Amino acid sequence: MPRFKNLKAWQKAHELTLAVYRLSPALPSQERFGLCAQMRRAAVSAAASLAEGRERGSDADFAHFVTMAAGSVAEVRYYLILAEDLGYLDGPGLTQTANLAVEVGQIIHGLRSRPKTSAGC
Fold it and tell me: What Cα–Cα distance (Å) separates residue 2 from each residue in 10, 52, 91?
């Protein structure tokens, strides 16, 4: 099993990615190549950055990829706000996904100050 799968931040980011993929079909079809694609890309990027950073050899590399993951989660949070404000998404699925994005962001923020070797990996 890859080592990154033991990282709680990756587990939650992966959960967020699945939630975004489940929620995004509710977006209008005209957003398939716009908002839907961007939201999915950002969610995937968060989990992928954590995976790549975890498998890198240095604390500096890990910190760099954790920072990238934090930015990607912030993107997801914005896209969810935008989708809600445009009237594209609402209801419990949106609320749960938005709350999960906040949680992932908080976990990643906690990683930003710890080296890879002490990040619970």
Answer: 11, 11, 35
Say if CB 69 and CB 46 are below 8 A apart.
yes
> Cα–Cα–Cα angle for 28, 97, 48, nearest 5°?
95
Q: How far is CA 10 from the centre of its chain?
A: 9
The whole-angstrom separation of Cα 89 and Cα 63 is: 33
**What pTM did the predictor assign?**
0.91
Q: How far apart are CA 14 and CA 104, in angstroms?
A: 10
Asked whether 115 and 87 are in contact (CB, 8 A), the reply is no
Domains observed in the chain: 20-116 (1.20.1440.60)
| pLDDT tens by residue, 82-117 | 999 999 999 999 999 999 999 999 999 998 766 545
Give the list of residues 6+ apart from residue 47 with CB closer than 8 angstroms, or none: 10, 13, 14, 16, 17, 69
